[in-house]
UniProtKB/TrEMBL annotation:
Residues 121-284 form the Methyltransferase domain. PANTHER family: CGI-41 METHYLTRANSFERASE (PTHR12496), METHYLTRANSFERASE DOMAIN-CONTAINING PROTEIN (PTHR12496:SF0). The gene is RRNAD1. This is rRNAD1 protein.
Length: 484
């Protein structure tokens, strides 16, 4: 597998420059092009986002074919583009960590009973992640696994029954803990004899470290109860029964992944970590105005802290905030590249109509605020008149003191139509800016992931990052794998 230590998982272009320069280049590209991601998409017209697009880029980007638009985020450029545009697209694409599922991986075939209730996406994830965890446990002699943020316990069950490891789930939400127990029972299993799920919110506190250590003790002292049972699940008990514990997590959202990394550093008895993150925008914000990052758990590493600081001296207004992290957690270019002309038109309409509404609400005063209630039905975006019906259909006349008469309704209706007509000529910029966002999405995600890996490396822990899922099926596909 590719290893972060020797940079072999990084883009070939940056192999020779060293990690510090690599991180600095990422920061620089993100700082220089902040206008591409640092805004709310519904404020597209309010903020006139296209005006930030360099003038010489506009014509070549507006004349792209669907195929060219689809492949821009892969770094495909055209000869007649201005040099600044070519350089940006090529540089950004070359900075991103590779996302193609590693060829070395072999999916574990999940037993039919255990797969019950899993979506095809979950099945894909669990089949690859369980296989990676089994190999990591073998390598580090771990016979026990703590699944953090275990949700309904799909992963834990497969690890227990098909890999022969003792598993405990840690889950903050009581409803998920009960859901996991119900699931085990529905399979005719006694919940107590199987995988325990502890209702605990993992936090970066000494008392939580203590709880985790107690959990490891209990786990390591209890033999795998399933060993004596009839092998109804065809369990392949092939992990050497040693005494290490591996901490794992599938789609650890927000602060959960950084918290796990800190726990892994602090708790000596955790020998191995396998963690896939998601929802970076869910991380806690310390101070919304803080620059260049407003998050408590980003950056974590010395290297990224230093480089962010250095680049932000040149770009003092640059901020990695919730908009940046939300983009980092979006789909990768794999799905974007398969879109048809009609898909792009539909996406344009969904963004444009909401942005028209936002513009009217922002400029139209108090009475119109209630129109902002979300319209989410897909068929509402067939055309603008259909969208208007959906917006007004959600309101009842006289429901708001300031919207009292038929004339009020007509006034707002006309204001929306007027705003639509005013901005219509700028609708084509929506897909262009979106394509540039899809180009920067993996760069932002790379920065967060590399920061997490470097944090562990700086603590002397061997760490690697591996794309373990097919990103067309599961876009958050980067697993951080570490051992002590
Ligand atoms: C995106 S879900 C993933 C669930 C499961 N691993 C899966 O892939 O099906 C994240 C889970 O982590 C749990 N979670 C979030 N923060 C947590 C924390 N600090 N401690 C424990 N669980 C947490 C949530 O309640 C949620 O069930």
């Amino acid at each position: 597998m590719a290893s972060l230590g020797d940079f072999s998982c990084f883009s070939a272009n940056y192999k020779d420059i060293g990690i510090g320069d690599y991180v600095e280049r990422i920061c620089r590209v993100l700082a220089e092009h902040e206008w591409i991601y640092n805004f709310q998409l519904t404020r597209f017209f309010v903020e006139k986002v296209w005006e930030k697009l360099p003038k010489e880029w506009r014509k070549p980007l507006l004349s792209l074919s669907t195929d060219d638009l689809n492949h821009l985020p892969t770094g495909r450029v055209k000869d007649d583009w201005p040099t600044s545009l070519k350089d940006f697209v090529e540089t950004a694409a070359s900075l991103a960590l590779p996302r193609q599922q590693s060829h070395d991986l072999v999916a574990m075939e999940i037993n039919k009973d255990l797969a019950r209730g899993m979506t095809p996406k979950k099945k894909h994830e669990v089949s690859y992640l369980a296989s990676v965890i089994r190999d990591a446990c073998r390598k580090t002699s771990c016979s026990t696994v703590i699944d953090i943020g275990s949700g309904l316990g799909y992963l834990g069950q497969v690890l227990h029954h098909q890999c022969g490891v003792q598993v405990v789930g840690v889950e903050a939400q009581a409803s998920h803990v009960h859901g996991a127990q119900r699931r085990i029972k529905s399979q005719g299993k006694d919940a107590d004899a199987q995988i325990q799920t502890v209702n605990l919110k993992l936090e970066d506190t000494s008392s939580c470290i203590h709880d985790l250590e107690l959990l490891i003790n209990t786990l390591q002292q209890s033999p795998s109860k399933d060993q004596s049972q009839t092998d109804v699940f065809n369990r392949n008990n092939d992990v050497e029964r040693e005494n290490g514990t591996c901490m794992v997590g599938l789609h650890c959202c927000g602060d959960l992944c950084p918290t796990m990394l800190k726990m892994f550093v602090s708790v000596e008895r955790l020998k191995c970590l396998v963690c896939v993150s998601c929802c970076y925008h869910g991380m806690s914000v310390t101070d919304p105005g803080s620059r260049p990052s407003c998050f408590m758990n980003f950056p974590l590493s010395r290297t990224v802290k230093e480089k962010l600081k250095k680049v932000s001296t040149e770009f003092p207004d640059w901020q990695l905030n919730v908009f940046a992290m939300r983009l980092a957690a979006q789909e990768t270019q794999a799905r974007w590249s398969c879109q048809s002309y009609e898909d792009h038109l539909f996406h344009t309409r969904t963004v444009a109509y909401r942005a028209v509404l936002e513009h009217v609400v922002t400029t139209g005063g108090k009475g119109i605020q209630k129109l902002k209630r979300k319209v989410t039905r897909k068929d509402a975006f067939q055309s603008f008149p259909v969208y208007l019906d959906a917006v007004f259909g959600r309101m009842t006349l006289h429901s708001d003191e300031t919207v009292r008469t038929e004339e009020d309704w007509k006034k707002y209706h006309d204001a929306l139509q007027h705003s639509h007509d005013q901005w219509e000529e700028f609708f084509p910029y929506i897909e262009i800016i979106t394509a540039l966002q899809v180009l920067l999405q993996p760069v932002l995600e790379t920065l967060v992931t590399v920061d997490r890996c470097l944090y562990l490396q700086e603590q002397g822990l061997k760490t690697e990052v591996v794309p373990i899922f097919d990103d067309r099926i599961s876009p958050r596909n980067l697993a951080i794998i570490a051992e002590r």
